[in-house]
Automatic annotation (TrEMBL):
This is GDT1 family protein. Keywords: Membrane, Transmembrane, Transmembrane helix. InterPro entries: GDT1-like (IPR001727). It comes from Corallococcus exercitus. It is a multi-pass membrane protein. Its main location: membrane. The chain crosses the membrane at residues 35-59, 65-84, 96-112, 132-153, 165-186.
Length: 188
């Protein structure tokens, strides 16, 4: 039980204000399907954190920090550009998104978690407790609580807030994360 509770608390706290919480808010605002987005977050988190708790040692010993920072920088800058693209769902009526809210959320969330502090925390906690399944359960629950707040807040605000401003602020934050990752890669 200590592995589950410890993992939950660590990830729930570290996810607050994290880029993936921002991504959850953005996806909920974009698709306006909070339960579908939360389901996508769940699937991506289980996959990502199971990977982290199972092969964390291999990643930490074989992928240089500089390379990981560069990959993250490219992803963040890409997320920033994607965020700037106006939502075409409003312009195209009821036409579904190209890959759908669920698959888009799964793919983006899985990639965003690669090398993220919550993934690294998952690796560390799994190494400490030697219980990858319990750690994955705890970290996934922590992610769902933190990101669930962002999903439902994003869904509620999407009808009341000018989405152009939300897109610009969100994109600016992703660009900031990208620049910080570039700086880390350059310094590394």
């Amino acid at each position: 039980m200590e592995a589950i509770v410890g993992s939950f608390v660590l990830v729930a706290a570290s996810e607050m204000g994290d880029k993936t919480q921002l991504l959850a808010f953005s996806l909920a605002s974009r698709f306006r399907k909070p339960w579908v987005v939360l389901g996508g977050i769940f699937v991506a988190t289980v996959a990502n954190h199971a990977l982290a708790s199972s092969v964390g040692t291999w990643v930490s010993t074989h992928v240089p920090a500089r390379v990981m920072a560069l990959v993250l920088a490219v992803l963040f800058l890409g997320f920033g550009l994607w965020t700037l693209k106006p939502d075409t769902l409003d312009e195209e009526g009821d036409k579904p998104p190209r890959f759908g809210a669920f698959l888009t959320t799964v793919a983006l969330f899985f990639m965003a978690e690669m090398g993220d502090k919550t993934q690294l925390a998952t690796m560390a906690v799994a190494a400490r407790y030697q219980a990858p399944v319990l750690v994955t359960l705890g970290t996934t629950a922590g992610m769902l609580v933190s990101d669930g707040l962002a999903v439902f807040l994003g869904d509620r605000l999407s009808g009341r807030v000018n989405m152009k401003y939300v897109r610009w602020v969100t994109a600016a934050l992703f660009f900031l994360f990208g620049l910080v990752s570039l700086w880390t890669a350059w310094r590394g």
